[in-house]
Amino acid sequence: MVLKTFGWSFAVTALGLVAAVLFGGWTALGIVAILSVLEISLSFDNAVVNAGILKKMNAFWQKIFLTIGILIAVFGMRLVFPVVIVAISAKMGPIEAVNLALNDKEQYQQLVTDAHPAIAAFGGMFLLMIFLDYIFEDRDIKWLAWLERPLAKLGKVDMLSVCIALIVLLISAMTFAANAHQHGGAHVDKAETVLLSGIAGLITYMIVGGLSGYFEDKLEEEEEREHEAEEEAERSGKPRSAVQLAGKAAFFMFLYLEVLDASFSFDGVIGAFAITNDIVLMALGLGIGAMYVRSLTVYLVREGTLDDYVYLEHGAHYAIGALAMVLLVTIQYEINEFITGSIGVVLIGASFWSSVRRNRALAAAEGKAGSDEKTEVSSGV
Question: For the residues 314-338, what does the mean pLDDT come to?
């Protein structure tokens, strides 16, 4: 099972490390290995959240997620995205941006750093909306009940998560603008960039998340009439509408996953510049890490880990909220990547331990109930 799920990841690791040695020797090998570990540590919470979505999709779309999805993740977000950001921010052509990335790495890194406020605002708002919509939903299973119960009651207010997200964005933009004013207005335009990028992130979340939710609801409605649909399909000889609808639902859920992965990858891409400004090594290292994150997502789904450890998804969403706030804070202040990665690991670790304790308590309760039942039977005899 492990080899089947992680086989491609092992293969990509081997090829990536060989390519690193051929490209830059043993030093490059070490850099790629460090970047791979960085990506996995920063994106473990991404795997847990992805698993919660991917388990609703069939085996075909899980394969799509591991094939086409990984191409988008590796080449799109880890290689093309930094170049596109530089091209847009520096108002240059993509070919010129690629040439800059390969031949003037310091200038390329500086341009990516200058574009960080826009990246952080977009990703921060997208992730913040995921967190807010999760904590404001009333759930049967609650991890931090003392916090989640009142939040679930507040969640009954329409559009509350959007209002809070916009307030957070306004505060971020105003704070950045105030800081710019203190420095002679040199960065005034960046405040507007933060505001526009944050709104773009919010709109992206609402469009993609709304479409995936719409088709998912439609799919559930069709599944309730599955028997009737099968009989009708047999009589007419036409493809079942439920299959077509499932395809639409899966497509938009896949699209949602890709945007989610993109938002999670922002901190990894930015953090990678602290290690190297070589886009080839960056793509190799982050690509290997991204492959393991995707394999881990599928493993969690197939093993039913989220069903066994019910608080894992809670911990991952709290980690999302923390990462969203970290991204927004980094608009003005620099935060070490170790801290960013550690927050997610600690929250998910705590939720995992809470799940283990819950499972032990339930097992003990069931054992005690069974023992009492046997005692009653034996007393009756």
Answer: 81
Query: Exposure pattern of 351-361 as b/e (b: 16+ CB <10 Å)?
Result: bbebbeeeeee
State yes or no: pLDDT of 242 exceeds 60: no
Q: For residues 319 and 111, is the Cβ–Cβ distance under 8 A? A: no
Instruction: Sketch the domain layout of the chain as residue ranges.
Output: 1-361
Cα–Cα dist 10/12, whole Å: 6
Other beta carbons within 10 Å of 179? 15
> Tokens at residue 253, please?
């859920």
Q: What length does the chain have?
A: 381
The answer to whether 34 and 285 have CB atoms below 8 angstroms apart is yes
pLDDT by residue (tens digit) across 30-64?
A: 888 888 876 776 666 677 777 777 777 777 777 78
Rounded Cα distance between 291 and 40, Å, is 9
| Cβ-based neighbours of 128, under 8 Å, separated by 6 or more | 165, 168, 321, 324, 325, 328
Between 377 and 105, residue with greater pLDDT:
105
**Token couple for 26:** 């043993």
Give the lowest-confidence range in 8-22, 184-198, 313-327, 355-369.
Answer: 184-198
How far apart, in whole angstroms, are the C-alpha atoms of residue 105 and residue 364? 59
DSSP string, 162-199: HHHHHHHHHHHHHHHHHHHHHTTTTTHHHHHHHHHHHH
Whether residue 319 has pLDDT greater than 70: yes
Side chain identity, residue 304 = G
Phi and psi at 83, nearest 5°, equal -70, -40
Q: How far apart are CA 59 and CA 55, in angstroms?
A: 9
Q: Please, which residues have CB within 8 angstroms of residue 245's CB and are 6 or more apart in sequence?
A: 215, 218, 219, 222
Average pLDDT over residues 241-270: 65
DSSP percent split of the chain into helix, strand, coil, nearest 5: 85, 0, 15
Q: What is the pLDDT of residue 166?
A: 94
